[in-house]
Amino acid sequence: MSPRYLLLATTLLDQIAKGEYPVGDLLPPEPELAELHKVSRSTVRAALLQLQQLGIISRRRGAGTRVEARRPPSAGAGYNQSLGTFDDLLQYADATERRVLEINDIVADDQLAGRLQSRPGGRWLHISTIRVSTDDETAAPICWTDVYIDNEYAALIREELPGYRHALAALIEERRGRRVSEIRQTIRAAGLTEVAAAALVAAVGDHALEITRRYVDANGVAFITTFSLHPGDRFSYEMRLRRRDAEGG
C-alpha cells in the first residue's frame, strides 16, 4: 500500500485537476487539511512537498499555499527513452532506480493468463515497482511497473531484490543461463489506475502510455512479462525506422 502522504497528494491533485481548488487560489492551511483528511500535519507537509516538486503549488511563509497549475508542467519533467537494441534497454534499467513496492507469489486466473498469454493455473512471481530518475531525486516517479516472472526464478529474485539494480532478465541469464532471444513490445494508450496514480503522485485516469514487454527465450517462451504505466507528461519514447533498400536498387 502507498504511504499516506502519497495518497493525500493524489487526492489533492485530483481536487485541483477538477477545479475544486482553482489556479490562483490558496489551499486550506495545514491544520485544516490535516483535520479534513484525518491525517497528521507531517503527512500534510510531505504531501504538499510532492505537489510543490511537481510544480502544482507554490509555498511562501506568511502567504500560504497557492495553486499554480492544474496539471504538472511537461517541460523538463519527463524522461526520454531511445531504444533500438536489448542493450539499450539494459542501459535504461541502469540509468534509473527501481523501488520495489510489493512482491508476492500468484497463480494466474483466466484474466491474468490472457494478459500473460499463458495457461491459467501457472505460478508467477509478481513484483510491483516504480522507477525514478537517478539524476534528479526531486523528480516525480517515471513509471509504475508490474513484473511477472516464471516461478522457477522466484527464490533467486527474492534473494537479490531490492538491492539488485540492473535488469532482472540479466540476473536470470547470469545466474541461471536462460537467455533472452528477443523482446516483444506493445505500446498503447491507457489511463492511470488508482493504485498506480497514488504511487506516481498523479490523478486517477490521467493519460498514460502502457508498455508491455515480453522477454522471450530461444524456444519462443516468455518467462518475464512487464506492464509499465508512464504518465503522459513524464515520458517520451523515441525510435528510428531505417528504410531497407530494394534488392538490386
Helix content: 25-40%
Provide the number of structural domains.
2
Structural class: alpha+beta
CATH class of the largest domain: Alpha Beta
- The average pLDDT is 84
Protein architecture, described:
With 249 residues, the chain is an alpha+beta fold. The protein has two domains: 4-67, Winged helix-like DNA-binding domain superfamily/Winged helix DNA-binding domain (Arc Repressor Mutant, subunit A), CATH 1.10.10.10; 79-238, 3-Layer(aba) Sandwich (Chorismate lyase), CATH 3.40.1410.10. It is built from eight helices and ten strands. Strands 4-5-6-9-8-7 form a six-stranded antiparallel beta sheet. It is elongated. The mean pLDDT is 84.
Quick structural summary:
The chain has 249 residues and is α+β, with helices and mostly antiparallel strands. The chain has helices at residues 4-17, 30-37, 41-53, 86-95, 110-116, 154-160, 168-176, 194-200; strands at residues 57-60, 64-67, 79-82, 96-107, 123-133, 143-150, 182-191, 207-216, 222-231, 235-238.
SSE blueprint:
Blueprint: H1 4-17, H2 30-37, H3 41-53, E1 57-60, E2 64-67, E3 79-82, H4 86-95, E4 96-107, H5 110-116, E5 123-133, E6 143-150, H6 154-160, H7 168-176, E7 182-191, H8 194-200, E8 207-216, E9 222-231, E10 235-238
Parallel strand pairs: 3-10
Antiparallel strand pairs: 1-2, 4-5, 5-6, 6-9, 7-8, 8-9
Helix pairs in contact: 1-3, 1-8, 2-3
